[in-house]
Amino acid sequence: MENADIISIAKTTLEIEIAELEKLTARLDDEFVKAVEIIHSAKGKVIVVGIGKSAHVGNKIVATLNSTGTPSQFLHASEAIHGDLGVIQKQDVVLCISNSGNSPEIVNLVPYLKDYSAALIGMTGNRSSRLAEFSDLILDTHVDTEACPNKLAPTSSTTLQMALGDALAIALMEMNDFKANDFAKFHPGGSLGKNLISKVDDFVSSQKPQVTENDTVKDVIISISSSRHGITVVTEKDEIIGVITDGDLRRMLLKGDDISKVLAKDIMSANPKTIEKTALAKEAMQILKDNNIGQLVVTEKGKYFGIIDLHKLLDEGIN
Are 220 and 244 in contact (CB under 8 A)? Predict the structure, then answer.
């Protein structure tokens, strides 16, 4: 098979799924609105039920709902009829996903899903199915064409399920006035959360190199060498006067001056870039990028507190 043939297959697949998504967009109606309102007003959580490929979609929808402020839990249809129905409480809303709506597990399960929950929402491509019959609301995900050339593997249908799950989550997110800081609370370990809530203080180095303005070049070299940052801060009673980098030392040496008479104040760069330790770490990263520097002086109420390093922030996923 030629490269062009492979690209053609991929384009056809995407075009079919895009066309089905456009049809779904066009037929969104009051039932979708009611589904969002029911979930939003529910006193319990959303129980998402599925089997087969729909189970994989259901797990993703649960993850998206949980991360955007709607408490959710996945329940596998085959496990539900063998004891796991106890997870459903009367205040919960059930979202049951099945393209056909008539798989044996779903047929056996839906009466219980309806009885045990506050509401049963069916996400199905078959309005004449057993799932549709028992559902309080139907989210219609039928497709005219699966992208699979044999029309067997769920492709377009699972794409619609996934997209409609996203639409539910985002609508609920907006109704709940769920903001970036709320999102970060559920992602404290990932780069998303770190960028939203991590403070400079979380990444300040334990090393705090500093000299006074009247220290000698030898003192400066010892101070810079005492840390891994290649910089020392010139202070007077913790007030920041300037900074000296290893680059400043090299440039001074290239001038050929008598270094025995050179003091820290003679080679320092005054008015260095600083940031308060309570600022967001991503703000520190932006200053480092904008000024093309590798280290930033951290302050506490204006006084010298420590050093934050570009590579440390990068390693922690701050961007």
Answer: yes
Return d(Cα 98, Cα 237) in angstroms, integer: 70
Let me know: does 141 contact 157? Beta carbons within 8 Å. Answer: yes
Long-range contacts of 182-187 (CB under 8 A, 24+ apart): 182/69, 183/67, 183/68, 186/66, 186/67, 186/69, 187/67
pTM of the model: 0.68
Paired residues of 73 in beta bridges: 47
What does the pLDDT look like over 94-124, one tens digit per residue?
A: 999 999 999 999 999 999 999 999 999 999 9
The CA-atom distances, in angstroms, between 43 and each of 40, 71, 139, 237 are 8, 10, 21, 58
CA separation for the pair 50, 104 (Å, rounded): 12
Interval 217-248: pLDDT, tens: 888 899 988 888 889 999 988 789 999 988 88
Instruction: Identify the H or E element spanning 242.
Output: strand 239-245
Integer-rounded Cα Rg, in Å, for the chain is 30
